[in-house]
Design brief:
mainly alpha
Length: 109
Amino acid sequence: MITRENAPFFIGGALLLGGIIWIARKGVSGVVGDVAQEAAEIPAEIVQGVGEAIGIPRTDAQRCEIAKANGQHLEASQYCTAVDFASWEASNVAGSVQSAYKKAKEIFQ
């Protein structure tokens, strides 16, 4: 029986088996061209559906902004795009380092 916990293993096994059969039938050079063409045609809904099936929530710009405004790092990581979250975190770290540097400079002058 497929459950939420073991679904990724079933999906991974099916993809692996399909990949082995595909490579056996087409050869490696044919597969490389097909992969590039097919990857460009995968609808976003399929990718999002697979993500939800394994427990990854869809991004939500509004929830992302609220989480960032409230300083909720875990919530932001769930609802922001990877690029948005990473740049926000990087700016937080850069701000913290600059703030610490200014305080240290004031103390030791």
